[in-house]
Amino acid sequence: MNARDDVFVPELLARRAAGVRAATLALLDGLTPEDCMLQSMPEASPVKWHVGHVAWFFETFVLEPWQPGFRPFDPAFRELFNSYYVGVGERHPRGQRGLLSRPSLDRVMAYQQSVLERLLEWMDDAAPPQALALVELGLHHEQQHQELIATDLKHHFWHNPLLPGWRPAPAGEAMADPGPAAFRRYDAGLADLGHAGDGFAFDNEAPRHRVWVEAFELAQRPVSNAEYLAFIEDGGYGRPDLWLSDGWDARVRGGWDMPLYWMRDDGRWACHTAAGPLPMDPAEPVCHLSYYEADAYARWAGARLPTEQEWERAAAQAMAEGASLPADGDFAESGLLHPARLRADAPGFLGGVWEWTQSAYLPYPGFRPAAGAVGEYNGKFMINQMVLRGGSCATPRSHIRHTYRNFFAPGSRWQYAGLRLAR
Amino acid sequence: MNARDDVFVPELLARRAAGVRAATLALLDGLTPEDCMLQSMPEASPVKWHVGHVAWFFETFVLEPWQPGFRPFDPAFRELFNSYYVGVGERHPRGQRGLLSRPSLDRVMAYQQSVLERLLEWMDDAAPPQALALVELGLHHEQQHQELIATDLKHHFWHNPLLPGWRPAPAGEAMADPGPAAFRRYDAGLADLGHAGDGFAFDNEAPRHRVWVEAFELAQRPVSNAEYLAFIEDGGYGRPDLWLSDGWDARVRGGWDMPLYWMRDDGRWACHTAAGPLPMDPAEPVCHLSYYEADAYARWAGARLPTEQEWERAAAQAMAEGASLPADGDFAESGLLHPARLRADAPGFLGGVWEWTQSAYLPYPGFRPAAGAVGEYNGKFMINQMVLRGGSCATPRSHIRHTYRNFFAPGSRWQYAGLRLAR
Amino acid sequence: MNARDDVFVPELLARRAAGVRAATLALLDGLTPEDCMLQSMPEASPVKWHVGHVAWFFETFVLEPWQPGFRPFDPAFRELFNSYYVGVGERHPRGQRGLLSRPSLDRVMAYQQSVLERLLEWMDDAAPPQALALVELGLHHEQQHQELIATDLKHHFWHNPLLPGWRPAPAGEAMADPGPAAFRRYDAGLADLGHAGDGFAFDNEAPRHRVWVEAFELAQRPVSNAEYLAFIEDGGYGRPDLWLSDGWDARVRGGWDMPLYWMRDDGRWACHTAAGPLPMDPAEPVCHLSYYEADAYARWAGARLPTEQEWERAAAQAMAEGASLPADGDFAESGLLHPARLRADAPGFLGGVWEWTQSAYLPYPGFRPAAGAVGEYNGKFMINQMVLRGGSCATPRSHIRHTYRNFFAPGSRWQYAGLRLAR
Amino acid sequence: MNARDDVFVPELLARRAAGVRAATLALLDGLTPEDCMLQSMPEASPVKWHVGHVAWFFETFVLEPWQPGFRPFDPAFRELFNSYYVGVGERHPRGQRGLLSRPSLDRVMAYQQSVLERLLEWMDDAAPPQALALVELGLHHEQQHQELIATDLKHHFWHNPLLPGWRPAPAGEAMADPGPAAFRRYDAGLADLGHAGDGFAFDNEAPRHRVWVEAFELAQRPVSNAEYLAFIEDGGYGRPDLWLSDGWDARVRGGWDMPLYWMRDDGRWACHTAAGPLPMDPAEPVCHLSYYEADAYARWAGARLPTEQEWERAAAQAMAEGASLPADGDFAESGLLHPARLRADAPGFLGGVWEWTQSAYLPYPGFRPAAGAVGEYNGKFMINQMVLRGGSCATPRSHIRHTYRNFFAPGSRWQYAGLRLAR
């Protein structure tokens, strides 16, 4: 994160902390302790673990070093809820988080409450700015885990033949066809990209830096289910010439012939969603694609994925033109955890589905990770991953920015990840 | 099982069914729904799945074909709780049983209760003997799962760094050293082995058949922890000449240098038990050994494992001499799920720990599996496994016989399996 | 092997040694140095390695301890050509034997010649009987590797799409259909089995011991390709009820739907053989089956595999009735490395194809491995394998006996292994 | 490759083709047919396969479409020697190339000679420019395989405990210590990068495009063995904070604690080289590093890897200043296949060791793969790989350029890959 040591108002920060936690806990509505223990793959953690981990972050990085007379809630939690911070010590093996029936969900709920109370109490005091900066980081960290709670749970439930849903189904009539995507042209030129200004940003969004961007065209909306279905029906999953070599191998190995969570039954298409199985809606943006599928689709469509520089330039321009960006997308606050239908008249860049870019996740020129264990937050993952931009229907509205860099391995499919065409 | 169509008294059988179920449910005392969902490896199922499966057996093999107007509790359970009966249809993948947060434990409890009630109600009617034989099989099947509930749960909790215990610790002072094991000699001769008589037995214990058994000597008690510790301290885990070739490979691959559940800390030995971590008691029988370890130990001790024929002959002789066999061991009814200390004056053959034999699990001459899907019960597993005899502290007293054949792959360690020396 | 210290005539043994080696080298006719380096799987060694290893056995177990002034041909070979004798020291990893382009085949040929010459020279002296016993063991060891040279090479060439052959095709017209197999009945009774008499036998054939064998019937010839084809065409590979549980898993994992080396092209069946691809001959015995396939076939045919005791009893009786056993089969000396067609009038028990029995490979009562490193020859493999009896078309005639116990893992398919029905 | 249809002089191209082939065959000096069949891992092919494949390229992409009356040398070779061109048809599995004892090396030599003769004969005719462009591509393709022949063979021989060498050892005294590396500063600015001009370049070096490069400093020579040893001795392989997360996992999984081919014996360091084992020379550039090790070293040294843009800018500037670039490095023509010692007075950018950059291998803006099957040459590998620049001691001098983009997965270690520091 950026060092903005002088700008924190403890009261405001405390209010935000309480609000973020309330949003985290709201995600557990309708879930049982058994649901909260599910772990369907090493990359997807149990809901209970996420809850413990977001509290752990505050206890470990804020309370332990800064609170006078600090005493841990439970010394064993230091290891149990450490994700990957080698600087903090041992970690419980990632793939075995689903084997922690103890501590129970009740006890983890008591833990997060205790940490939050101690945090709020301590923030009344003369908390030093560098500690408050860690609180702010912790709040954004917690919002990231809110998104993971949703995407991981969807993956866990996918492994239950009953296909449980835990959210209401999207309401409303199917919209009219959004029509073909318009492409907008952007001229070549120098651009300053990366985070600027006073607001919070992760360290990987900095420093702001100059890039030369060649002229390009970018679609004004993501690819729809209907468009992706045409790729399927045209045999796109059976044509190696459309795929990257590693992508084709992943496709064969995984037996992929449709997006994750899609099902075909008697010629009808359906999707596993947060509301359980629903008919596939052609007007929604396609999602749960790997990079390989997004890339193959783009090649099939005679286009390509944008670079993150192109994407950010276009999004910055939209903002400069007065678009109230977060407003035009759909976010976690809707409670649906499902992307809204595409509309022709709202070419926003944020929300709905993450958009794969053709940029590898690498440091910006002059990048420096934060000092100490929180320096492990982003930098050590800068290899073998591709950048996604824009946020999704599972991202909190206050969490996303047009400079935000999300990143996943190219074979990952369990995020709400789609694509937007460039050429 | 044997066909004894004429001997069932429905009232007695119903009383037994209720008693067996009560014993099953007693095993859940102190467990949370989260505990009951744990699955630490594909071979070890969640407690909740075991409970659903024992009910499923009665619903599928008794109620569905025999109860007039049968209606399933939930049609989805037919697949969810099928273990390996291909004749019944599809099965939920074994390694993913821990991903079934739904149905909840509450609902599975309602399921087992519904099945039991319908079963008891139906048994009041003029139930045909061949159906009652399936009820009896189902009761023994349920008792097998009682043992698995205990051994699986111990394995699940072993993967939690908190090492939870869920049973009281064994009471009492450490007994005097049991002293060196006495060996008893048995002369060569023909013997009739396998199940005889009216009582229940599994199909794999039949038919009774004749074998020639050479003269042999057999220890009058299993090997103790103290004796096994001498093997460890003599470097037994580092000497390939003591091990079978496959055993040595398994040892290296698994990093084995002590029995499963043993821990060494600062030179002191402890064990993970049903009561949580306890100091290792030298007077207890060693257990949680693979066949490979039992075999290597026997070779180190200048002895060997007995064959199942030798074992059964000796046990039969003890019975003929008036030993009240089940009385002298320790069984699941103690509630401890931990083997009692060895005593010099009680050379029983049943209870305490299972004893690996050097016999492969193969059909007896003239073996015929039962007709229909229950024919899959035993026969199709007669490969790549070794026979264990005698029962353990997790076996119900009424479940074990001296003709009982248990079987596990030679690398399995999570059962209460020890050994007795022969020569 | 048995200890028969007083029976060796060095001159005769030397003549046999030269003859066995000549037979080994004859197997290399038509092979290039490149062919001799192939290794298609860890279990199948390169021809060159086999040649070096049989020489290594004599150099290590005979010359090194017994020859005055012994000097190794090349000190590095002690490790390179050690198969699995932990007592001898380190071994080159089994799966990497195909990576030894050096030593070249020329040098390995020089090695084997040097060892043989030194061995023959030393045997002129007053060689002690216990050393000569090791020579005899080494000759039988070399004959075992002759068979492996053939079966391994067949497997190696199977991985070359050109399917090279290196032996002449069997001559002659297709025989008349052998007709249905006759079954012969054997009464129940005590039998003395295992090796007896003065001739050589491996340690695992001893000691001779008594067994009770129940009455049984045994087919008078192995199962034919035609009979096995009926199993295939009846859907035998698609019916899990016919298979052992592990066997079904192996079938699915391996994609098995016909014997190894069979091919189906346009409805016609062919086999990869030592003469390259040939049409499948219905009158030949089926071979290259795993135990699982043999067992499933027997179940489908309403029969079962014999135990090794039944097999040996029947073979012994045939001998007692005057059958000149080795004469009626087909062996390696034919040079074809392909089983002859079955005949109705020659119910021999040796040669043609190995026959899977339903007996696990375990020690006979009273078994003792030989002292020293050669004690690793057999005993340490007595787990997870099934016994095969009878020898094959790749077995030297002088190597086989009716007490001979071959053993392979139940999933192995690259040996000439078929079956004979019992009931 | 670029389309330069009008610039080919068939006579000159034919002379080059003969010369390139002579260089390929010279790499086989001292190798046996057995050596030429080795395959130590799927990524490293046998020498024989490389020879067949470079001929296959000409036969498939030039002779087959362009030569009147074309007849293949052997129809089976079309599949056997296809590497990854899906557009051409089936391919023999990559990991099984070492199982092709047939065709023999002799026959593959006849194949390459036949293809070359037919190619040269055909080029006398009025060969169309677009076909000649494919010949030129084939020559550069063959030079790439010359490097792979060297690096793959080194890896194959590493798996032979005899550690064969096949090239003379570097001569000469150890040079004086090259002294600390000087860093040169480059100012920020726009730069035009990528291939320009008339010479040959691969499609992935185009199009020439503009980039903004921030100011940076670059070391004037690669990192030496002595410098890397200091990293080892400082515990660099044991400090996760220095490593990328994936890199640390790879290190643990592979047991890496020194560069590939290094050995430590009694405190002395040695390396497996093309001349067999040699003492480690501190003045040589470190090589056989993965990206992960190069990245960790740079972090330890308080620096970083350069981007490929920085590297190319610096190399271009050196050229503009009059450096005769290929002259100052060391290349395959020396016949040593070993990097020369570093000198303080020769800050060249080409030859010696490849240099990892921190750039992912991705398309340049406006990249278009060639049409047809040769379009699979580069583009489909643009994922999960990092760019290396500069060429190595195994690269032919005429093959390398300062715009050349090599690429390997970050865990690859068998290339002559080192690093140069930036900051």
TrEMBL record, chains A, B, C, D:
Record's InterPro entries? CTDL_fold, DinB-like, DinB/YfiT-like, EgtB, Sulfatase_Mod_Factor_Kinase, SUMF_dom, SUMF_sf
Quote the SUPFAM superfamilies the UniProt record gives.
C-type lectin-like, DinB/YfiT-like putative metalloenzymes
Key words of the record: Iron, Oxidoreductase
Give start and end of each Sulfatase-modifying factor enzyme-like domain: 188-323, 349-423
Which Pfam families does the entry mention?
Answer: DinB_2, FGE-sulfatase
Q: Which GO terms describe its biological process?
A: ergothioneine biosynthetic process
Q: Which Gene3D superfamilies match?
A: paralog of FGE (formylglycine-generating enzyme)
Ranges for domain DinB-like come to: 20-149
Q: In which pathway does it act?
A: Amino-acid biosynthesis; ergothioneine biosynthesis
Q: What is this protein called?
A: Ergothioneine biosynthesis protein EgtB
**Which organism is this entry from?**
Pigmentiphaga kullae
